[in-house]
Amino acid sequence: MACTIEKVLADARTLLERLKEHDTAAESLIDQSAVLQRRVAAMREAGAVPAEKKMESQINRIFEMGEVMRKAVQVDDNQFFKVQEKLAQLELENKELRELLSISKESIEVGKEDLPDDDAQVSK
Predict the structure, then answer these.
(1) What angle do CA 33, 37, 38 make, to 5 degrees?
(2) Least buried of 27, 37, 57, 113, by fewest C-beta within 10 Å?
(3) Which H or E run contains 1?
(4) pTM for the full model?
(5) Which N-terminal residues, if any, form the signal peptide (predicted)?
């Protein structure tokens, strides 16, 4: 194997060309990788944003439903207190009416006792 300078220079040129080709291919792969990473990041953002918006929307709906439930409980409580108040009024009224009825019955009985018997008057 005789090594001549011309052969060494030719081999060096060939190696240099291959190195440039590999360097160009590596740069191309790096560029493609960067493009893919940007696309993946964009896809993630695009996919994440709707998911986050959807989740935020669902959370807002849950809060709205909670607020509606709170208002419904307040309405129910108010209605319950009104019913209880009315019931207490009716119970008091019923008690007073029973007392009046009792007094009325007593006065009728007293009035009957004060009246002379029809039989007693007829026999006289």
Answers:
(1) 120
(2) 113
(3) none
(4) 0.41
(5) none
* Amino acid in position 67: E
CA 10/CA 7 separation, integer angstroms: 5
Q: Count CB-CB contacts under 10 A for residue 122.
A: 7
Q: Where are the domains of the chain?
A: 22-113
The two three-digit tokens of residue 75, written as one number = 């309405």
What is the mean pLDDT of each successive set of 10 residues along the chain, which is 124 residues long? 76 88 88 87 73 80 89 87 89 93 89 68 52
Over its C-alpha atoms, the chain yields an Rg (Å, rounded) of 52
In this prediction, residue 11 carries a pLDDT of: 85
What are the φ/ψ torsions at residue 2 (nearest 5 degrees)? Answer: -85, 130
**How far is CA 79 from its chain centroid?**
24
Cα–Cα distance between 17 and 36 in angstroms, integer? 28
Locus of tokens 């019923």: 94
**Two tokens, residue 20:** 């440039």
Per-residue pLDDT tens over the stretch 62-94: 889 989 888 888 888 888 888 888 988 999 999
